Amino acid sequence: PDGRAETVRFVLDAGIVKDTYVLRYRWAQDGRAVSWKLESGEIQKAQSGSYVLGDAPGGGTVVDYELTVDLTIPMIGLFKRKAEKVITDTALKELKKQVEG
Fold first, then answer.
1. What is the C-alpha to C-alpha distance for residues 69 and 7, in angstroms, rounded to an integer?
2. Residue at 37 is within a domain
């Protein structure tokens, strides 16, 4: 009823990293925080995260961002970290796009 998504399906295609996954969102009553958990994914076995908005000194907004990702596919450490970084960077770019319009 409030227009906020509760369950969202994502399709990620970032070169080496491709995944289709579903996240379940939980929103704070005041709209200044959101958290999520992975419901299903192809290469992710876990993902959880949150954004919490706060007032910055002198005006503006501070965003605290947390994200944990764990992949199901066996990968050499370097490639696994790269895949996790792609997922993290994608989330941050999308947040920036939403905030800046």
1. 18
2. yes
Question: pLDDT band at residue 91, thresholds of 50, 70 and 90?
Answer: confident
State the pLDDT at residue 20.
94
Query: Which residues fall within 8 angstroms of residue 19, CB to CB, at 6 or more apart?
Result: 10, 11, 12, 41, 42, 43, 44, 87
Question: Looking at residue 29, which CATH number applies to its domain?
Answer: 3.30.530.20
- Quote the domain boundaries for residue 35: 7-94
44, part of any domain = yes
CB 81 within 8 A of CB 68: no
Q: Determine the distance from the C-alpha atom of residue 27 to the mean position of all C-alpha atoms in its chain, rounded to a whole number.
A: 14
**Domain assignment present for 1:** no
